[in-house]
TrEMBL record:
Domain Sec23/Sec24 helical: 777-879
The Sec23/Sec24 trunk domain, residue ranges: 426-675
GO cellular component, one term: endoplasmic reticulum membrane
Domain of life from the UniProt record: Eukaryota
Family according to the record: Belongs to the SEC23/SEC24 family. SEC24 subfamily.
Protein name as it appears in the record: Protein transport protein Sec24-like protein
Domain Sec23/Sec24 beta-sandwich: 680-764
Primary localization class, coarse: endoplasmic reticulum
Length: 1072
């Protein structure tokens, strides 16, 4: 793909402005450069004219005014800019390259100082520019920019430098709702970071940070550990992390910048804003097909890349040890109604696509030849524009109607697909419930729960009048039911017909018609059947077990129309097709808690047979998805059933130790959520990338039809996919890397659509850019899910070592550039007592330690004792579809106090949440760091959000009256159950009470605590368990395992882990 800049003449007075506008954007042939903005310090001063010649002044040294600390500006070989402040002259023999505090502040050689070097800015690399080039990152350029407009000012008395978002600071403006994930109301602190072009992963001017390490283990760092890198624990930071996960401040700033530009009344107002022009000129490129004012980027909830700049060559990529990929949630719920994905119907023109690579038209497509052709931004091919879609171009090379075209102004868009995108007419939404009626399901109350949840979910089924339903039950035989339509039976005899198939080794359909019926026509007959099911099998003695045969029967029923199979079971597959082997049925080690956390675990997490995987593949080809709801009181071999959901895009709901009184609410809400959320039927997904890049290592629930085509019989707003990008033999020869996720699906209303998400980032040849513009939330998500897959094929220690080595190797790569810089300017400074971390990845060591301590890789006895194989298999299935908010909480839990709450702090907190019970606004308190010394106080009640569990811990000194008040807020009668832990209410009852909606209003401490629980729970999946633990309970060991920063029997503390990493980094640097 080739692009050229405008050849129109520009006078010398506009040279610098033209250069800044052409520096980082594609300009259509013969397009006119429209920029009349000049950033200047006065009426005569203009930007350095050397920029217009493609030359950047060499780095210089600057000193502050008298009485200020001199600042030395340097640049290392990786392009990282450093501001090194020398100590005062009276501080003794100070090195000119001294970082941080003065030497006299160091009191002991084994207690190094923790310092933050906030002045190292990753360099800007752009193809076609000199390798030394940098946008404004030098003293000469800064002198040409007014100090009040520059956000990249030098660190000196005159230029205090960029104001980064401070941590643990209450925002001045409210983060109005956690439900408004990326609303445009970010606090002023979040807007101070350098803002880049909206829609792209931003290029923040973020420094690297030097964190010291201990010279030996066992040194007390109680006073120093406060400065260790942690997530933002302010109310705003915790609220955002619960809903959005870890997300770059500059990413948020870029979205705010996009909103600000859209709010501009016109290009004339934009031209009057010197600051807006300055920010825009720092971008690597701008949207091509539309103006910046109307552009709407892909929201991070839909698609987020793990890096903000893409490596340009395979050899370069191989030096970066962290994943370069994307986390995609194509049907995610938009945060606000304003962010709803627009729908575009091209009509007779058909969907506009590249004729060669078949990429869809987007905001980076360039129209040429007067609008008769457009150039693909993925492969560079010129395709003809259909006459029905033709529109003339304006002077800037854009279509006259570009700003009114969602496909040219939005990163996310839905295209209405014409008939050529259909193999068959869209099928109606079909739900087939396969229910276990064996004695195991009856005895634990699961059958009653299944029937009640189905009955209460009928009003929430998608598809309106087109919706079809059916029911199959099974024990040791298979039962089919023919439902009758009220219109076809005027006599009113709507009793369903029942047919039994006893040969479970050769299943067939005994009723040719009536098993799948329209809900609107046969609802009365269906409700009659549901009412009778509970009584029909109340006294059954049949142990059941024909799970595989029931699945085969459902497949026969759905194979011609597709749909959703919802398997609701409580028993193991013991007979018929798909029955477990003798060794699996006997149990043995499979039922032993001691097997979890050992290398033997891996072999038992594999399916016992291949029947369910083969059946799932056949179901995927027939556009059938399978959801599994497993309610059991014993080991049920979930690992064997998991492929049914894994390869069909289904859901898994696992409720161990099922009791109807305890799990009734969870079961009903979960099924309601499964059938009512936005759903894509009969889908396929493909991710296209810039030429020379291919997709590899897909993560999620799907079946791979080809090397890059994912079959999704059913996907929904809760499903998340991961992908890694791999460079082929050729280098990338374009200025931008683009990735486009396309999902072809049938909407619940019957319309065939294509959901498109297009993101783009600059291409770089500078290693500093990969570190400086990384996105830790997406990167951690990919690392976690990759480890979950790896541990099924390798032993624990191998995976743990590979994970740690990748972190060490990454920091070695980063520090090698810093070491070269130090040796270039001063050999006196040593990094032996510091661990340099790039600012965007400053949390990565903490999160990798969280992965190492998680139940996925942990070998602690306290964790293994609380988990069975079914629990571990379910955990793997959850991690397989983890969104970024869930993965962020999983590696470092969100911890907030529930009692006591600081009245003054909470009143000042303007962070609002929306609970599941309605418009219940709650003010969030300050978060707590994951350390027992800071969390587990006897007078405190805390909530710990682990992503997969919601833990509520009660200290031993909490008054029983407060526990009673918590239950009083549920509008239910109190059932006092003594548990011997100093409270009159049992943990099990408390967990059930917390599921209920609290009373409106939250003036008391108990009501505010209840509102906080409900609000945070509404941000998690409805089947997220609530686990209540009283201080001193055996389950408290599991709480201690969530304290990521603390030392455990087999794992070091956070400080010790950093020290270990630093020693390994220093060793490799010494030996390299």
């Amino acid at each position: 793909m080739s692009y050229r800049q405008s050849n129109q003449p520009v006078d010398s007075n506009q040279a610098s402005n033209q250069n800044f506008n052409n520096f980082a954007r594609y300009v259509a042939p013969n397009a006119k450069v429209a920029s009349n903005v000049q950033a200047s310090t006065g009426s005569e001063n203009k930007l350095d004219p050397r920029f217009s010649q493609g030359h950047v002044p060499s780095p210089t040294f600057s000193s502050s005014t008298e009485g200020s600390t001199p600042t030395r500006v340097t640049r290392d070989s990786m392009g990282v800019r450093n501001y090194v402040t020398a100590p005062p002259t009276n501080s003794g023999a100070a090195s000119p390259m001294w970082r941080g505090p003065s030497p006299e502040a160091v009191t002991a050689p084994n207690q190094p100082n923790w310092s933050f070097s906030k002045g190292n800015y990753p360099r800007f690399a752009t193809q076609g520019m000199p390798d030394e080039s940098s946008t404004f990152h030098n003293a000469a350029a800064q002198q040409a920019v007014p100090p009040d407009l520059s956000r990249l000012s030098l660190h000196s008395a005159q230029y205090p430098g960029p104001t980064l978002p401070s941590r643990n600071v209450v925002p001045n403006s409210p983060f109005e709702s956690l439900a408004s994930e990326t609303q445009r109301h970010y606090p002023p602190e979040a807007r101070q970071s350098p803002v880049t072009r909206p829609g792209l992963i931003p290029r923040p001017a973020m420094p690297h940070t030097n964190y010291p390490s201990t010279a030996q283990s066992g040194v007390s760092l109680a006073s120093d550990t406060q400065q260790l890198p942690r997530p933002d624990l302010s109310p705003f930071g915790v609220a955002r992390r619960i809903k959005e996960g870890d997300i770059s401040e500059n990413y948020l700033a870029s979205l705010q910048n996009a909103s600000n530009m859209r709010n501009q009344s016109g290009s004339q107002n934009l031209a009057k804003s010197a600051e807006a022009t300055l920010n825009a000129s720092m971008n690597s490129f701008l949207p091509v097909a539309c103006s910046e004012q109307v552009f709407k980027p892909v929201l991070p909830c839909f698609m987020r890349l793990s890096v903000g700049m893409f490596p340009n060559a395979p050899s370069f990529r191989s030096k970066f040890p962290f994943p370069v990929g994307a986390v995609v949630q194509p049907l995610a719920e938009p945060p606000t109604s304003e962010d709803t994905v627009p729908v575009v119907n091209f009509g007779k023109a058909g969907i506009i696509r590249c004729r060669r690579c078949r990429a869809y038209i987007n905001y980076l497509s360039m129209f040429v030849d007067g609008g008769r052709k457009f150039r693909c931004n993925f492969c560079g091919f010129l395709s003809d524009v259909p006459s029905e879609y033709y529109c003339p171009l304006d002077n800037s090379g854009r279509r006259l109607d570009a700003n009114e075209r969602p496909e040219l102004t939005c990163g996310s868009v839905d295209f209405v697909a014409p008939s050529e995108y259909m193999v068959r007419p869209p099928m109606p939404p079909t739900y087939l419930f396969v229910i276990d009626v064996s004695s195991a399901a009856v005895s634990c109350g699961a059958l009653n729960g299944f029937v009640s949840s189905i009955r209460q979910s009928l009003d929430f089924l998608l598809g309106d009048d087109r919706t079809r339903v059916g029911i199959i039950t099974f024990d040791s035989t298979i039962h089919f039911y023919g439902l009758k339509s009220s219109s076809d039976n005027p006599s009113g005899k709507l009793d369903p017909i029942m047919a039994v198939v006893s040969d479970v080794d050769d299943v067939f359909l005994p009723i040719p018609h009536g098993c799948l019926v329209k809900l609107c026509e046969c609802r009365e007959s269906l409700e009659i059947l549901l009412d009778r099911l509970e009584s029909m099998f109340t006294t059954t003695k049949d142990s059941g077990g024909a799970v595989g045969s029931a699945v085969s029967a459902a497949y026969l029923l759905l194979q011609t129309c597709g749909g959703r199979l919802i398997l609701m079971t409580s028993s193991k597959p013991t007979r018929g097709v798909g029955a477990l082997s003798k060794s699996a049925l006997e149990g043995g080690e499979r039922n032993s808690p001691g097997i979890v956390g050992t290398d033997k675990e891996r072999q038992y997490l594999e399916p016992d047979n291949t029947f369910y995987k083969k059946t799932a593949v056949n179901m995927s080809r027939a556009q059938i998805s399978c959801d599994i709801i497993l309610c059991t009181s014993t080991h049920s071999e979930l690992a064997t059933l998991t492929p049914l959901a894994k390869y069909t895009g289904g859901e898994i709901l696992y409720l161990p130790k099922f009791e109807l009184s305890k799990d009734y609410v969870v079961l009903i809400r979960s099924l309601r959520r499964m059938v009512s959320r936005e759903t894509a039927w009969e889908g396929v997904m493909r991710i296209r990338c810039t030429r020379s890049v291919k997709c590899h290592g897909f993560l999620g629930r799907f079946f791979m039809r080809s090397t890059d085509l994912l079959t999704l019989p059913n996907t929904d707003s809760d499903k998340t996919y991961g992908v890694e990008f791999v460079l082929e033999d050729n280098d990338i020869r374009t200025e931008a890397f683009a990735a486009q996720c396309a999902v072809l699906y049938t909407a619940s209303g019957g319309e065939r659509r294509v959901r498109i998400h297009t993101v783009a980032i600059p291409v770089t040849r500078n290693m500093a850019d990969l570190f400086g513009f990384a996105e830790v939330g997406a990167m951690t998500n990919l690392i976690l899910r990759t480890c979950a897959d790896a541990v099924l094929n390798k032993n624990f220690e191998t995976v743990r070592k590979e994970l740690t080595d990748s972190l060490v190797q990454g920091l070695v790569r980063y520090q090698q550039g810093g070491s070269q810089m130090q040796s270039q300017y001063s050999a006196a400074t040593s990094l032996s007592n510091q661990l340099a971390l790039p600012e965007p990845l400053r949390l990565l060591p903490l999160y990798i330690q969280g992965i190492l301590k998680s139940p996925l890789l942990c070998r602690e006895a306290s964790v293994a004792a609380s988990m069975l194989l079914d629990d571990k298999s379910f955990l793997h299935s959850l991690v397989d579809i983890f969104s970024i908010p869930l993965s962020s909480a999983f590696v470092y839990p969100n911890i907030v106090p529930l009692f006591p709450l600081d009245e003054e702090t909470n009143a000042n907190s303007q962070v609002g949440l929306i609970s599941s019970s309605g418009p219940l606004s709650v003010q969030l308190p300050e978060g707590l760091r994951a350390s027992a010394a800071h969390v587990l106080h006897s007078h405190r009640v805390v909530l710990i959000d682990e992503g997969v569990n919601l833990w509520i811990w009660f200290g031993s000194s909490v008054k029983p009256s407060f526990v009673q008040e918590l239950v009083m807020e549920t509008n239910e009668e109190i059932a006092s159950e003594h548990n011997g832990a100093g409270a009159s209410i049992s943990p099990q009852y408390l967990a059930r009470a917390f599921r209920c909606a609290p009373k409106p209003g939250y003036t008391s401490s108990a009501s505010r605590a209840r509102a906080l629980i409900a609000s945070i729970l509404s941000c998690r999946l409805p089947w997220t368990p609530i686990r209540v633990v009283f201080q001193g309970d055996p389950l408290e060991a599991r709480i201690l395992s969530l304290m990521v920063e603390d030392r455990t029997v087999n794992q070091p503390s956070y400080t010790e882990f950093l020290s270990s990493i630093q020693r390994q980094v220093q060793s490799r640097l010494t030996n390299s």
